[in-house]
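Recall that a protein's primary structure is simply its ordered list of amino acids. Everything else, from secondary elements to tertiary packing, is in principle encoded there. The following example makes that idea concrete.
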Amino acid sequence: MSQSNLKHLERIKDRIERSSELSEEEKSNSFKHIEEWYAEDKAWGTFIAELAKISPKIEAILAEMGLI
């Protein structure tokens, strides 16, 4: 996995963790997807699309970060 992707993942995890708009379930589901992606090393676009499906709030966070 590239250093750039690792840096993005850490930023995403941090923003999700700090979000007051996401429920604990949404945060948990997001972290599960992130951990799966680490293990499977999915294509970046596929990973972002799957993560965005969890909640419109997560999609908004990713858009704010300029990732989608």
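The chain has a mean pLDDT of 84. Residues 13 and 31 are 7 Å apart (CA to CA).
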